[in-house]
Amino acid sequence: MKNILSGYNDLRDLKTMSNDELHVLAENIRELIIDVVSKNGGHLASNLGVVELTIALHKVFNSCYDKIIWDVGHQSYVHKILTGRKDSFNTLRKYKGISGFPKKKESPHDIFETGHSSTSISAGLGYALSRDIKGEKYSVVSVIGDGAMTAGMAFEALNHAGDTRTSLIVILNDNEMSISQNVGGLSQYLNKIRTAPTYFKVKEDVEAILNSIPGIGKQVFKTAERAKDSVKYFLVPGMFFEDLGFKYLGPIDGHNISDMVRELERAKKVGGPVLVHVVTKKGKGYRPAEENPDKFHGSSPFDINTGKPIKKPNHPSYSDVLGDTLICLAENDDRIVAITAAMPEGTGLSKYREKYKKRFFDVGIAEQHGVTLAAGLASNELKPYFVVYSSFLQRGYDQVLHDVCIQNLPVVFAIDRAGLVGSDGETHHGIFDLSYLTHIPNISIMAPRDKSEFVKMLEFSKDYNGPLAIRYPRGDCYDIIEEKPRTEIELGKAEVLTKGKDIALIAIGKMVEIGYKVAKELDKQGKNITLVNGRFVKPLDEDLIIKIAKEHSFIVTLEDNVKTGGFGSLINDLLIENGYKGETLNIAFPDVFIEHGSVDELFKQYNMDTEGILNKIYEKIW
After folding, report:
1. Hey, what domains does the chain have and what are their CATH numbers?
2. Given this model, what pLDDT does residue 284 score?
3. Catalytic residue IDs
């Protein structure tokens, strides 16, 4: 196959290409994406599904002044390749390389930064309304997937946009998937449109015939248009989008560039809100991704020939342990139910879903609803576990406070991907959950140091009668410090791992293992170290911390959260209230948004690795 991409420079080349050349370009781009993601990891299936759609968008619109906004943004790889980042695409998701999401600092073609779903219509409407106020002239295009459309925010934006009547084009990329298979009423509605597009074919045929009648054809067609609603409702159920005030175009084959160019040109000419329904296949062009799009949503490096991961994990992940433990707990307790927001695979709940279908709820991309659903279930004496990534629970903050904690309901928040997640960067790091949860009354917060403690915390959670959050990191789940006997979990009680008199290290969660390495190095320097596994961020083990304060003149706290409002802040407040006169050092992430890169690189960058922490301690004591 000819490699058109090798000679491609910028969007001016795209504008002059024939339809045949564009299809060759599409295949070249697919090959590049598969090659780079197989080495770097990344979001493969979603990007392979939007290759032709992205080419058509840039063929019709000029992103130098027209505004194209990508919902979620993880499907923007093709956009990046076409807008000047082809030669740097091999640095995708690498430390100091290009991001896997739109970034303003990378390109003027990235006009809005996204990472969480269902925001593009709201942002696009903001651009459109400000354009109208300022008297500017450009098109605004919001691209959103059918999975992202399930979130309440997308419906709120559709409702408002239909009311404003401003010119806004919404591209509904319908691939029947979010991360997993889509669920819910909207998914069923779109399936009816996909499988029975009778009305649109009839309408196009009638329009062509009537408009061809000399003299009277156009007037007859306008009269027919006024009566179209009855035809529409007869042939297509609902016509939901037109009822909201949108002109509906579609469904269109999202892999036919010429069809999409024609419909996008048509959408560009129509005044007011327009929704273009594009049907695509997630993973298009790479069989392993087509057959298992959920596994290639966000993939680690893999072998192109087989599609299998190159590096096999040495241990189960925290997500796996969560799923297996929850199954064991549910076997003996029929109160237990599990909730996910469109991520049964990512959160480890796939096996639970298979075994306990009636006690499993996938709410789609709707974290706010997921939290309040859990509150309703708990109100009627069930025991709900809402299993959710840390950065996504942010979206349900008000519901955690208002619907769960005010009523003191026994909901368990299993907070996956707490701390740094690596190459997905700013929008996905889970470094804020302690800060946005600790100030809420009634909630208790735990973090395990290793696998055995994680299982014990889940067992403890079953009979805990109040809101409880258990935060745990991404990655391998194994036991540490095997020589130390384990103690049972008690509410608000920490665990002393080593006892000394010079320096006290109080660590939480993932940081206990790093604290243990730091303690061993300090021991080599002749320092006598107390190492405490905090276990509970809230309530703190106040008696133990006050006792440690009396015995130590230097206390170091370790956490993988931002410093502001985190574990160290709570301990500082307690020490100040009790008149502590010694030195304190809070090891935590600074008040910044942390870029993408491997977890090890980022820990080193922010002096959160063993060497960095030791250097900070040395600065204090020598």
Report:
1. 5-197+236-291 (3.40.50.970), 318-471 (3.40.50.970), 495-621 (3.40.50.920)
2. 95
3. 282, 367, 395
